[in-house]
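$ fold --in a.seq
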Amino acid sequence: MISREEYQGRRIKSDVWGGTGDVHFQDLFTENDLGGRLSMLSRVTLMPGDAIGPHSHTENGEVYYVLEGSGIVTDDDGEYRLNPGDAQFCADGHTHGLRNDTDAPLVFLAVIIPNH
């Protein structure tokens, strides 16, 4: 299955999980396209100052993989800088969030993996 950029769904959510600003999603495939193997596979952009608030995962886990830019990930109780090529995994029962504290866009791949 090929997913052409011009046909990929785009959506914007504000103040995600108590964060700030807007989160721009480019859905590469839908959950249905992926046969339920993944709940989400999206290219996500946080503009400077925007953030996804810390949130817990239940019944799934999530991976953030940074493509461009840099930001601060909250991983349970710690904070760490993520740069291009860095990844973070939030397993079921744990919390994470991500904020762009720079003056350039932060672009990352977000993958939500359901527990089966």
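$ fold --in b.seq
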Amino acid sequence: MREGEDDPVITRHRDLERIANAALRAGRVAMESGANVRAVHDVTAAVARGLGAEDVGLRSGYASLSVTVSAGENTITRMSSVGRLGVNQRLDTEVRRLAGRVGGGGFVPASVHGEIDRLLRETPRHPSWLVAVATGTACAAFGRLLGIDWAAFLPVLVAGSLGQELRHRLLSAGVNVFVVVGIIAFVAATIGGIGARTAGSSTVAMAMMASILLLVPGVPATNAQTDIMDGFPTVGSARAVWVIMVMVFASAGIWLALALMGVTL
């Protein structure tokens, strides 16, 4: 081969690397948005095959995602870290739709990255104050189902709303998620308890419990069970441990609040 002439094998590996990186990014966004492992694999594989990969192999960890793509005799493996797992149903849905479009062909890796950038930038989000009020209302409504009286309803709503807003600010500042859970459990339960007692409620203890219902990790718990049943026990078990840790820190926070208020369950 003459000097300066492109090596077709090297060029093909570079193409596969671009395909792998685009597929990994789509899968990572889906995972960080709250998708279970099977959905993440479906998104990643659809993007990789739509961009020209003939065979796709995937491996998931709690904080990582790796993909192996091949075309002919050429194969390449790439791994990507995964950030904090959250819940963003709109972004999750949009990424799945993008994967479906890419799977139909007509895309190149650069255009996939461009579409993901657009989704991250333009997918609408509810304002934080609306999320806070909705969260507080949900805590109060579930509190009524659990038996709090009407006198405790508004204090629980306020406590849940303030707890959600504080959680949003602490997580945005990069505070450890488990520390945040403990802080929110203590603060929300204390506010709910003081408010319920001031309002003359006879269900102060239950009001304090209802004030921290925003901390219940519903989506991670569901994903943990789904991943295990779908044949991904490693990720499912890691998510289950995460759920247990959240409940431990939440229990510690409300226990301190109960002790401070002199309330017994």
